[in-house]
Design goal:
mainly alpha, disordered N terminus
């Protein structure tokens, strides 16, 4: 009888654990969905704003005067926020159509390595909190063998995992000057690709709208 009660209690505990895990997974999915929705809304708002700027030519001078500084600051802030998606790429995409896409890409290359110092310092100080520790351990091994290639590839492609690579670089005491230099080339390449994508896409869109 005692064994039956014990087994029943264990089964109830398992049910409670499963329910808690399912609730946590649902909450996590809801959180990411909400963040992606916010990012999409901001991207659409920026797109509409950029189209309005082209039709209101008087505002273009102000955008040219303050646009590069704005891109720089947005990219620094966006890349400094660890593990949370901030839609700076939408800003780069739109501003590539308004400003010089070469300079927009250069601003990305100068700004984002500064923001990525937060990930580097988090790893350097051992203050990295993450769920996927197995992938992080794999990244550390990759960094030990091919540090330059890992940092260059992760920084040249828009992805939310670069913070883990930056943290791994900090944990391994990767030379800071080398870290920033590699990121400059990778982030600049990424910024120019996104800026030119915006340059051609929005111009084609405006030609279609204007006729």
């Amino acid at each position: 009888m005692n064994r039956k009660v014990t087994n029943g209690g264990e089964e109830q505990q398992q049910v409670v654990n499963l329910t808690s895990e399912e609730g946590a997974k649902r909450a996590k999915r809801f959180s990411w969905t909400r963040l992606h929705s916010i990012g999409l809304s901001l991207a659409i708002a920026i797109l509409v704003f950029s189209v309005a700027i082209f039709f209101m030519g008087g505002l273009l001078g102000d955008v040219e005067a303050y646009g590069y500084l704005g891109i720089f600051l947005i990219c620094v802030i966006a890349s400094a926020v660890i593990i949370v998606p901030v839609p700076a790429i939408a800003v780069v995409f739109v501003m590539g159509a308004i400003l010089n896409p070469w300079l927009v890409g250069l601003m990305v290359g100068l700004a984002e390595p500064i923001g990525e110092l937060t990930a580097y310092m988090a790893g350097y100080g051992g203050r990295v909190a993450m769920e996927n520790r197995r992938f992080y351990a794999r990244l550390v091994n990759w960094m030990k063998r091919r540090g330059v290639l890992v940092l260059l590839c992760f920084s040249a492609v828009p992805n939310p995992l670069f913070d883990l690579a930056g943290a791994a670089a900090g944990a391994l005491r990767y030379p800071l000057w080398k870290y920033l230099l590699i990121l400059f080339f990778g982030k600049t390449a990424k910024g120019m690709v996104v800026a030119f994508a915006g340059f051609w896409t929005l111009r084609l869109l405006l030609q279609f709208l204007v006729g």
